[in-house]
Amino acid sequence: MWGRFDGGHLVAACHVAANLVPVQAGPEDAAAFAQRALTRRRTASTIVGPQSAVRPFWDEVGPSWGRARDTRWDQRHLEIAGPPAVRPDQGVRAGVQGDLGTLYPACVAMYTEEVGVSPEAGGGADLYRARVAQLVGRGWSFVRYDGDELVFKAEVACATEHAAQIQGVWVPPHRRGQGLATEGMAAVVHQVRARISPTVSLYVNDWNHAARGVYERVGFVETTRFATVMF
Q1: Does residue 22 contact residue 49 with C-beta atoms inside 8 Å?
Q2: Which domains does the chain possess?
Q3: Buried b (16+ CB within 10 A) or exposed e, 29-45
Q4: Mean pLDDT over all residues of the chain?
Q5: Which of 127, 188, 190, 231 is the most exposed place for a label (fewest CB within 10 A)?
Q6: Facing residues of 16 across strands?
Q7: Gap between the Cα atoms of 107 and 100, Å rounded
Q8: CA distance 89 to 22
Q9: For the chain, how big is the Rg over CA atoms in Å?
């Protein structure tokens, strides 16, 4: 974690790991973090954060770090801090370890569809499976079954006492358009607000109109724009 200080007071930070994330960073802060990043080799596979910070960071490091695999400059950050606007699906529940046989392949499919590369690539299967199991163990994984078929899933990626961020929202392709995601997300919002955090957030690509429609129906509202650079 890097920090930028003004008169001894921390004014901005940058999380530096597989994900590089500027935190409360204005354009000057982001440029300063970028100069620090250029003193070492790139280890991040993703730069993600508020659009206003990711752009100036990338402007500085782009010529040295090389061509990105994908850039997503217009991602909507959404929040809901009240009850969902539609009826929650009563079949959505917290995942348990016994679900991993169907849940793990669904997580791989979602990640591959969203990111464009499998999380198992390069020998990452064990680490990714451990992460999925960790979220289940925390009670942060949500599933909906129709018989033996997993038809909806989502996870809490991270949470504080103030807010939780949702990731990995997925419905199998042949079950899309049936309302599973809308009522499923309503259930996730209801359950997360009841036992994890009062505000539920996520971010979605501008071009994903189907997902944006789901979140709008549930009651999410846009608060800012994110951007992501992937290597």
Answers
A1: yes
A2: 2-67 (no CATH), 80-224 (3.40.630.30)
A3: bbbbbbeebeeeeeebe
A4: 96
A5: 127
A6: 20
A7: 10
A8: 36
A9: 18
